[in-house]
Automatic annotation (TrEMBL):
InterPro entries: Aldolase_TIM (IPR013785), Elp3/MiaA/NifB-like_rSAM (IPR006638), MoaA_NifB_PqqE_Fe-S-bd_CS (IPR000385), rSAM (IPR007197), rSAM_sf (IPR058240)
Pfam families: Radical_SAM
Name of the protein described by the UniProt record: FeMo cofactor biosynthesis protein NifB
GO aspect biological process, one term: molybdopterin cofactor biosynthetic process
Amino acid sequence: MIKLRERRSLDQHPCFHGKASASWGRVHLPVAPDCNIQCNYCNRLYACVNESRPGVTRSVLKPAEALTALNRLLQQRADIAVVGIAGPGDPLCDLDRTLETLRAVHAIHPELLICVSTNGLNLPGHIDELVAAGVTHVTVTVNAVDPHIGQQIYSSVTEKHQTYQGLEAANILLGRQEEAVAGLKQRGLMVKINTVVLPGINTGHIPAIAAKVAAWGADTMNCIPLIPVHDTPFAELETPTEAEMVYIRKSISGHIPQIYHCRRCRADAVGLLCDNDTVGVLAL
Ligand code: SF4
Ligand code: SF4
């Protein structure tokens, strides 16, 4: 009789659960090059081996290539609990490409947890497809819950071939993010909120974000200090200090549980969170 492989338990996701991070790793499949919004801190033009930050990858893979690379990786190590898609763009911008990848992964490796990280714009209306493709964990990046602040962070939001800017863009995105988080929780998925801490832009607004996303039903929140990237409107902002991050996380931990061990990984990161990402990039 064929023995079905048991799925990892939800608390084996190393990013959502600090205790799991010492034993269990993740792999990001970099199959999502495009994005449907433009954040003022993001520049994805760098294909790079040495830099370790979100949006960077050695290369963008086709779904079949990603599966080949994953199969090879899983032959080499048994500590991978999660397959995620975290860019280098937004995984739901080209939904077909992401679903093709996830369905193939879930069919061949049903034991693995599956995770997607998104800005949330294109999530409402597609949650059932993601669940059917095996998705268990979703991260939604929410940098503002006041569109007057959001309009300083997002220079554009594009959907159905129409591009929006300013307050209108920030309002559209915020509405989708709320709908997305509520819909994910209705279907029982684990939801993490990523918030990029942008000094002078949203620092004083972080408690309001924490209270709001908790009310939406999110499980946990990950405040990420800005990594200023050249050739972006926020290139000249300072990165928050460690002391500021400690203070921010402490001041909002009463609203929603905080994540303290995020490594701000590349879109092709591999392994335990304590591994060196610049070495552990997914290889074809
Ligand atoms: Fe970059 Fe992500 Fe913002 Fe898109 S949503 S612009 S990929 S940071
Ligand atoms: Fe996990 Fe943070 Fe890395 Fe995402 S960026 S995989 S949440 S450690």
